[in-house]
Design a protein that fits this description.
The chain is of the alpha/beta class. It has a domain of 216 residues: FAD/NAD(P)-binding domain (3-Layer(bba) Sandwich). Helices cover 30% and strands 27% of the residues. It contains 8 helices and 18 strands. The strands form 3 sheets. Strands 1, 2, 8, 9, 10, 11, 17 and 18 form an 8-stranded mixed β-sheet that branches. A hairpin with a 4-residue loop joins strand 10 and strand 11. Helix 1 packs parallel to helix 4, helix 4 packs antiparallel against helix 5 and helix 6 packs across helix 8. It binds flavin-adenine dinucleotide. Flavin-adenine dinucleotide binds next to helix 1, strand 3, strand 12, strand 16 and helix 4. The site of flavin-adenine dinucleotide has 39 residues, from helix 1, strand 3, strand 12, strand 16 and helix 4.
């Protein structure tokens, strides 16, 4: 009599488990699955899901993907308006062809995840990861229902509140958070191609008013100091200036985990941290989508080489993020520290200079980094402070 033996369990359930199907995680999963790796994406929520995010994004990120991102684009921005206390406007026409988009996050994240699934990745929704442990030569990713998945590598992409990187010595040991409030308002959009940045109303930060389909996406963010974000006082002035009642829209408070230094983003045994979990958000203009998509792409490239046996490939990811993003952010952080302490001077000497709108537009479109402008901007602001 023969006894049927249980089917042998493969060495690992997956090559890579990606924790989080936001912009960073879904981008990583897509690029890995497209290269033929067995990928599982685990997300605590279900897609498509809303996310507090202005959705402003440099169109240059299209270069990171071979498929069209335009189904996620709500508006194409051709003009940027800056104001100080809703007055003293500066208008900048964005150079080039449609360099700045407003994307709808529910669609962008879903589109990237669908592309990953189309290339063979498994998406497990409503599956919160609880723990990541090392078992022999592989990793186990445990979910809150008590199950686990074994894998050769893990990508930590669980966003601003991530808790998985620190125990592994990845990312910032003490993340720095900016406070932000997002308000989505249904309204008639009078200027569908104009993004508005208001600098005078918010202490140590700014407000953004982005057009979207059928309304406006409004945000208030404060980037230095620990004072409470007095967003209601700001919104009480901002919303009526757009013809809206001061209490319109639902307020959603969210942390922005801003770039706070060059950190190790890889563990040699096969763990990488990407997106907000890696503290990549621009500390001056709060741009988090571009670094999320860039880090996802670079992480997948490095993992692909590591899975094929190239030992030093993961260190290359930390290095690449340092040179392609961190070096510019180090200057962005210095600019933020000076600008948001002296915002009126910053507005007069920075934003109101004839060349400034074009420079800011070039930064937003990804054409230039902060390093290209920083020394001149800081010298100007510091010199003016010593004169006053
Ligand atoms: C108010 C506000 C406005 C913003 N506006 C802009 C803007 O206009 N332009 C811009 O570029 N950036 C903006 N940002 C920043 C941008 O939203 C983030 O940088 C971006 O979402 C980072 O993507 P991510 O994939 O790293 O994280 P997320 O998008 O946060 O994705 C993380 C994913 O992980 C999942 N997850 C979390 N914990 C677990 C767990 N334990 N197990 C499984 N899954 C888990 C979550 O469900 C989520 O899907 C804004 C942020 C805020 C707060």
């Amino acid at each position: 009599m023969s006894v049927a033996s249980a089917a042998p369990r493969p060495a690992c359930d997956a090559d890579v488990v990606v924790v989080g199907a936001g912009a960073a995680g879904a981008a990583t999963a897509y690029h890995l699955a497209a290269r033929g790796w067995r990928v599982r994406i685990l997300d605590a929520g279900s897609l498509p899901r809303p996310k507090p995010c202005g959705g402003g994004m440099a169109a240059s990120v299209q270069r990171l993907f071979p498929f069209d991102l335009s189904p996620a684009v709500d508006r194409v921005i051709t003009k940027v308006r800056f104001t100080w206390c809703l007055e003293d406007p500066v208008i900048a026409e964005l150079p080039g062809e449609a360099p700045f988009w407003i994307v709808r996050r529910s669609r962008l994240d879903h589109l990237l995840a669908e592309q990953a699934v189309g290339c063979g990745a498994d998406l497990l929704e409503a599956t919160a990861v609880e723990r990541i442990t090392r078992e022999g030569d592989h990793w186990r990713v445990h979910n809150s229902a008590g199950g686990w998945i074994s894998c050769r590598a893990v990508v930590i992409a669980d966003g601003a509140r991530s808790a998985f990187g620190q125990p592994l010595g990845l990312g910032s040991p003490q993340p720095r958070y900016a406070s932000a409030v997002a308000v989505e308002v249904d309204a008639e959009v009078l200027e569908p191609s104009t993004a508005h940045f208001e600098f005078g109303l918010v202490r140590h930060g700014f407000s953004w008013i982005f057009p979207r389909q059928g309304g406006l996406s409004i945000g208030v963010g404060s980037f230095i100091g620990r004072e409470p974000l007095e967003s209601e006082a700001v919104l009480a002035r901002l919303l009526p200036s757009f013809g809206l009642p001061p209490d319109s829209g639902e307020r959603r408070v969210s942390p922005l985990r801003v770039w706070d230094g060059h950190h190790r983003l890889h563990h040699d045994a096969g763990v990488l941290v990407v997106g907000d979990a890696a503290s990549l958000v621009d500390p001056f203009l709060a741009e988090g989508l571009r670094p999320a998509l860039l880090s996802g792409t670079r992480a997948a490239e490095a993992l692909d080489r590591w899975l094929r046996g190239e030992a030093g490939a993961l260190a290359g990811y930390s290095e690449r993020m340092r040179s392609e993003w961190g070096q510019s952010m180090a200057w962005g952080r210095r600019i933020a520290q000076v600008f948001y302490r002296l915002p009126r001077v910053g507005y007069q000497l920075g934003v109101k200079r004839p060349t400034a709108p074009r420079r800011i537009a070039q930064i937003l479109s990804g054409e230039m980094g902060y390093g290209d402008i920083a020394q001149r901007v800081i010298r100007r602001l510091m010199f003016n402070r010593s004169q006053s």
